[in-house]
Amino acid sequence: MTTTTSPAKTTTSVAQPSASLLERFRVPGAFFLGAVLLLGIAPIVLSDFRLNLLAKYLCYAIVAVGVSLAWGRGGLMVLGQGVFFGLGGYAMAMHLKLADAAATGQTLPDFMQLYGTGDVLPWWWKPFANPAFALAMTVLLPMAVAALLGFFVFRRRVKGAYFAILSQALAAALAIWLVGQQATTGGTNGLTDIQGFFGYDLNDPVNQRTVYFIIAAVLLLLMAAARQLFVSRYGELLIAVRDSEERVRFLGYNPANVKLVAYVVAAGMAGLAGALFVPAVGIISPALIGIVPSIGFVIGAAVGGRASLVGAVLGAVAVAWTQSTLSDAYPAAWTYLQGLLFVVAVGFLPGGLASLVTVLRKRRIPTRTTGETA
Amino acid sequence: MSGEGLTVRDLRVTFDGFKAVDGVDLDIRPGDLRFLIGPNGAGKTTLVDAVTGLVKATGSVRFGGEELLGKPVHRIARLGIGRTFQTATVFEELTVLQNLDIAAGARRGPLTMLRRRKGVPEAVTKALETTGLTELRDRPAGVLAHGQKQWLEIGMLLVQDVKLLLLDEPVAGMSHDEREATGELLQRVSEDHTVVVIEHDMDFMRSFARSVTVLHAGKVLSEGSVTEVQADAKVQEVYLGRASEPEPAAVPVAEEA
Asked: What does the pLDDT read at residue A229?
């Protein structure tokens, strides 16, 4: 052990060993490539129908960005992202339904005229007529719910499977509540048949393309933001909390707050994804936000590699694509395959496909013995 | 940064009726290098758990004029009390440098947290040198040897800017050379910190302790310098009376007394 005293100021010295040119431009390069693919090539080579499907998958990918942060980096098994996806989706759909109604001179959305008890708009629908309010709510509402829930849950040190079950129960509860409120939420049907998007006709393929571009741009932006979080000091701390919460507490941090940030940010992303899903698909319903879709949200990330941002996003798109391809041909088999994928990914390849290269490489090189005896 | 003293009065910890710590009084002077010894189940680790807020206790623990009992773990840590555990707990996936940087950062504001780390904080550079881990700073902590992990933990306490270090069996499982290096490290650290070490290894204790407290069945059995404690008849009795103790590293104190 050396005992030399510190040579005055070394603070400004190089932090990383000088990276090669390739290494330095790897991330911006990959980002640029992704942007070219999503914004340039995909809209040219894909038909309107396929592009619309891709838009839907990209919404799932946005959820996966949040899952990657909360679960991959923070160790929070967020099995109830459907809640936040749903809150964002409903907030957006409520506004669009009100706008649709207003465009045809009605005061009530179509389903309320059919099932409603009166001809008065429920008070909690009213503010959603304002587009700015509705847009803000698509993100703020899920974040507020996550903050409230997380505040109590993390302070009481609920974690692991208990946290997963709790968040899933919440997804089930929201879906059941929505089904029960047919007069004000559309019940099982959800909010359907959405025609316009801030004055633009969604049946027009050109406008559908615009929706696609918005979704792709939002995904890229959120990936950049998440990447910044990953490499920041907060990102390092989040990993530390995931791997040894108790140790972090003894360093003088409150791990509950560290986890809360990841959880709330992930919820906001899921909310935004839900909001963008509505114009792309034209519907939001309890079936899209309950337990099964909530599990679906994390499977993509698990398969692709939850700790890797790109892995999670590609995984989400790939799983969603497989689902719509296979579930058309074998509707019953998909559920089983989904379950199998989840078990295999979590149990045998925790790093997902993104870690496959590293895992295989490690196989070939004998692992280093650490000489641990304790 | 000079050490601060710890004052424990009538500390009691009970687990389902079992008195793990049973009325302990303890005065640790600033700058001391105190060893806590005693047979298994004497309450050494529980005592440290109580001081750091991990278990509920009654009585009084004062540090730098503040009462610690009743405060949550992270608040006690921020007052300048750091601890290690019997098994080294470092963040295995993070590098040595990242481990130290996190340890140094409990007082960072949100804006700093959201930025990427640029350069190495001076305290971290210093701790790397003190612990001899400078060469290994970009390695993941998970690949370090057992002794190096313990040094990293001590380094993390140093950058955390603690005044009191509570170390739970820091040399368990170490080779002879590693023990010597650790002992020297502790002596250097105790120049401007107060250090409390729980230890089973009596050779190690004899070589490096400045003062010793012997715990037995939750009570303080004896206290003083190494020589005083070794000469204490009660201590000899406790240690000789536990010949079946399955602790190969623990050579009875009374042996050479």
From this structure: 94
Q: Which residue of A has its CA nearest to B178?
A: A1
% residues pLDDT > 70 (chain A): 90
Minimal C-alpha gap between B232 and chain A (Å): 32
Q: Residue B105: list chain A partners with CB under 8 A.
A: 233, 237
CATH of B6-256, one of 2.60.40.10, 3.40.50.300, 3.40.50.2300, 1.10.530.10: 3.40.50.300
Interface touch B118/A15, C-beta < 8 Å: yes
d(C-alpha A173, C-alpha A181), whole Å:
12
Model confidence at A98: pLDDT above 90: yes
B-chain residues near A12 (CB < 8 A): 119
The pTM is what?
0.84
The verdict on A244 touching B (C-beta cutoff 8 Å) is yes
The helix (run of H) or strand (run of E) holding residue A223 is helix A205-231
Q: Is A229 on the interface with B (CB under 8 A)?
A: yes
Delimit the domains of chain B by residue range. 6-256
SS3 category, B249: coil
Question: What pLDDT digit, counting tens, does each position of A141-180 carry?
Answer: 999 999 999 999 998 888 888 999 999 999 999 999 999 9
pLDDT tens per residue across span A35-61: 999 999 999 999 999 999 999 999 999
Nearest to A6 among B105, B116, B129 (CB): B129
Separation in Å, CA of A148 to nearest CA in chain B: 20
Q: Do A17 and B119 touch (CB under 8 A)?
A: no
Per-residue confidence band for A364, with pLDDT thresholds at 50, 70 and 90: low
Q: Which residues on A lie below 8 Å from B125 (Cβ)?
A: 6, 10-11
Residues 6+ apart with CB under 8 A from B178: B146, B147, B171
pLDDT digits over B8-17, tens only?
999 999 998 8
With a cut of 70, say whether residue A371 has pLDDT above it.
Answer: no
Is B61 in contact with B68 (CB distance < 8 Å)? yes
DSSP state for residue B107 in the 8-state scheme: T
Q: Is A328 on the interface with B (CB under 8 A)?
A: no
B16–chain A Cβ distance below 8 A for any pair? no
- Nearest residue to B127 via CA among B96, B105, B86, B106: B96
Separation of alpha carbons B162 and B18, rounded Å: 32
Does residue B1 sit at the A interface (CB-CB below 8 Å)?
no
Any idea where the domains of chain A sit in the sequence?
Answer: 49-290
A177: three-class secondary structure by DSSP = helix
CB contact under 8 Å between B181 and A1, yes or no, is yes
